[in-house]
């Protein structure tokens, strides 16, 4: 037993009196750890004794929580899941340690905020002999309601001692970060990196990388139940995982370089995709449209050119028709001139005749007569018309008198109505507040002023009505709003009730599922569970209530548990089935052997196996037989003698030797066969004939057999036989030539004699039957085992199927979340409605006040507005009617005056007509007298002169007619000329239009050329731009391109072009773009592939992109070579080699430590690091890097680079498949060199034998204690190596979480003894472990207990000093935890 290095009495005294433990060693050693206001520990402190501390207690007592808060978390200064829980579970979080959950299984009192500390103290004896102390700690705070906001943490380092010169609380309240910073001698950190660097340098005396490696190893050691988990495979994995991982900066550097390369690759890919897309667009969208446009423009140019030619021909025809019409006009003009001359001559003659005196006298006499006749007729006609006028005038006078009478009556009636209406207006105006207006305007009949007053009153009343309507709307809106408030309040209350109901339902569903899980797990038989597993599943039920954030579920955990049992059963089935197949084959063989043995009469010896023998002839061939078949034993031989004789014959090679009928050694062909033969040879003395009787069989005569028997001597025993020769003896000795020997029978005689052969056959059948029976029994057992395993699998499925459903909890949680959301929404809606109702009600009050003010000001009523409106309308209508009557009265007076004036005018007119009638009667009488006198004075020569004048007048009339006809013809001819000119002008206009259209089509054609549409279609662009070259290039286009048969083809193609453009643009953006330039005659599709090239048409842009793809691929290849050379060759590969070398050196150091510490039985273990053969490429790479990259040949270097490149590409692919935005985690996993290694454990016995592999098979053959010791040694040795690499004064503590669970006391004693041998400080948790072993010189023990319904932990403390266990009375510094 090792003596304790701690003063037990001083330790106990300090613990009992409230003192502090003191430093004992010259290296740092943990003295105590503490917790302040975390989880259910208000203020707890746990002491080490000689660097050892045991925390014992049942499940949930809080022992693992102490380990969680005071070990790796303090060494790393971090609170991540992988720090608090070595398996990285999200179940343990710092927020949970700070803030109570309020759930039934959390007895802590709810709080809005939490703040706490965890700390560890180390002590040592300095170089000057004085005690030194070092305390590190971590503070954390969190607030409720901050959602996913992170927990705030800070770290502290001090040389002061907590409880002496330093307190982390004030009035039992933990200090916050600001208060802590004000304390002298306390260094507070906000960076975990800086904090670790300080710890690594000052406490451990090592570089930060080595410190990180150390904490990783300690993390592996802290994994729960190390003793149960320890086997060669898990040990190898633990040691491998404890190797330093690839540094994050190396991963970052490599990832960044690869990202740059990937970005370039992506650029190549996107450019290539853009090039393919643009080429596809150009070929399938733009080119078809361009073809249609070019063909359409070519068709248009051809059409307009043809139209111009047709209009030119029509214009020429119109020119000819105009010339003909002009000639016709000249001809008619000349004829008209001739007739005009003739007519002028006749006119002269007629005028001269008329000027002569004779004609004048004749005309005068005749004219006088005619004049008087006409005058008489005129007077008679005038007198008749005056008579008619007289009658009409008399009638008009009578009518005007009647009109005057009627007008006077109407004027009087209208005046009376006007007076009555004025009184009505006065009455109505008084009712509507217009009395003053009527008094002012009505006496003067100022209807306009009165109407203005009424209109103004109407305007004010309309405003009054508007105010009233506004008030009604406001009141209605207020009433509606009040209803909405009531309804929203009802909805809010209903939603709150629903939330409460859903919460009760959810809690009930959670409780039910937990109860059902426990009941279901209790009844499991095929997949039994532990209480811890069941409680873990029950804990996971809470995860189901977190909608959208749960990463695990009870069903998933149960499924994993069942999968383990299912896989175990399936593996067992596979093993059993593998055993069954050989047995089935053996059974078939045995059955075939039995059938064969039963079907034959004799059984030959087995064929030789070390040499090849011929196929012996069939018995029926008569060509010989084996020796055993040609003899029978003599009757006097006993069975025992026969057994010995057969054994000797078989050993000498005689028993199955061949005897030919002739005794010859050659066959029929003269060749010696591949066989063993006997030949007859005479021998003096007794022969085998004495014991064997020859028989004839298979063509071998008896004499030949007898001769063969005679060739072998027979003696009773070896003593009586000669030294050499060919003989056999009764004691089993034999001699053949220079060979001799002795044989003992291994079985009864089976070949010599028919009886022996039959007995042997029966024995073989019995043996085969016995073996067959054993095989059947084995197959029956296997079948039963398979049935049992199948039933176990079926039971597994049945039990798993009976797993209580999570759906009620999920549905209840979903319903609760929905109801919570609806409740919040209802609350917000209610608040909105209340605020809105207040606004609406205030607005209604304002409207009511405005209405009252307006009513008081202008005398309008507050109610009955419709009645008032009707009265106001009646007043307005009465005024309108009064206005109409006034106007009507005026018009009637005017009509009366007009009638009177007309009657007066008609009387005057009648007097004038009477006078004129009398005058005309006198005039007619006088004219009649004058006519009679003129007719009496007319002579006969006067008649001739008048006849000649009549003939000349007739001739002039004819000539005038001719001139009129010719004038019409001239007019018609001139019209024809004008028409021809108009037609010509029209054709000229059409030709001009056709020429313009042709020119426009030509311009459009040249626009197509300018738009670069011709060359992409394989058409040449004319160098000279004239009509003929345009027509020729258009004809070429029409020959080359398909006809456009549909008028909408171009529009449809353009739509496809636009649609394709939008799709293509999405692929080109953001570095490239497309646009439409439709300012010109032809819309241009322009592509921007490179800013230096500017906007280009699709075809040259497509060519430019194709060139860019080629350039980028060349650049990518160059960059890839550079990246591979820079990142992989010169940097990362060398770094990998350093890591592999470090691993090799670490295992060498571990092996040195292991060699120094053999087990109690003298066994020694060692570790071998070899490349993992499961990955052949990794094997080659690891072996290659063991020699250094620079020393490798070019092929090996390329192999290493390709291997790493594939790993990197696989990491990127995994990240993409997982949807991860950052692929560094996948890259670190892919390049984790530790996965390329396999750690083998070897051991050597205490007798100094050879090293043997310590695998699962050899592990299973060891005793429990021996296994734990052998497997624990490498872990402790690894810790020793890590600490030996640290500074001389570094602490050497390790943390073990229920590491000795499941092993017996002797093993635990050895286990703890290892920690003492390796000089390791230990902090250990256990369910019921005291560690009071003779191998443990001293240890502080804390027995923890906790009531799940009450907050806090009860603690009893003990001290073991190698022989005695002493309970320590609880003093305040030892432990204050929760509620006492």
Describe this structure in a few short sentences.
Residues 601-625 are annotated as: Disordered. Keywords: Coiled coil. By secondary structure, this protein is an alpha+beta fold.
Overall CATH architecture of the domain at 8-205 and 1287-1376: 3-Layer(aba) Sandwich
Query: Structural class per helix/strand content?
Result: alpha+beta
Main-sheet strand order equals 9-6-5-4-1-2-29
Strand content: 5-15%
Keywords: Coiled coil
Coiled coil: 308-342, 910-937, 970-1004
Pfam family, one: SbcC_Walker_B
InterPro entries: CHP02680, P-loop_NTPase
Task: Provide structural commentary.
This protein is of the alpha+beta class and 1380 residues long. The chain contains 31 helices and 29 strands.
Task: From the structure above, extract its key features.
1380 residues; alpha+beta; Rossmann fold; Helix Hairpins; seven-stranded antiparallel β-sheet; 31 helices; disordered C terminus
Q: How do the helices and strands line up, and which of them pair or pack?
A:
Layout: H1 8-17, E1 29-38, E2 41-47, E3 52-57, H2 63-70, H3 72-76, H4 81-84, H5 94-98, E4 113-125, E5 131-143, E6 152-158, E7 169-170, E8 173-174, H6 177-181, E9 186-189, H7 192-203, H8 208-221, H9 226-229, H10 232-242, H11 248-355, H12 357-431, H13 435-441, H14 447-522, H15 531-541, H16 554-599, E10 625-626, E11 631-633, H17 639-651, E12 658-659, E13 692-694, H18 702-710, E14 713-715, E15 727-729, E16 733-736, E17 739-742, H19 754-801, H20 807-858, H21 865-936, H22 941-1010, H23 1027-1040, H24 1049-1068, E18 1073-1077, E19 1084-1088, E20 1095-1096, H25 1098-1156, E21 1164-1171, H26 1176-1185, H27 1194-1218, H28 1224-1230, E22 1237-1244, E23 1252-1253, H29 1256-1261, H30 1264-1284, E24 1293-1297, H31 1305-1317, E25 1321-1326, E26 1339-1345, E27 1354-1360, E28 1365-1368, E29 1375-1376
Helix pairs in contact: 8-10, 8-30, 10-30, 11-22, 11-23, 11-24, 11-25, 12-13, 12-21, 12-22, 13-14, 14-15, 14-20, 14-21, 15-16, 16-19, 25-30, 26-27, 27-28, 30-31
InterPro entries: CHP02680, P-loop_NTPase
Pfam families: SbcC_Walker_B
Region (Disordered): 601-625
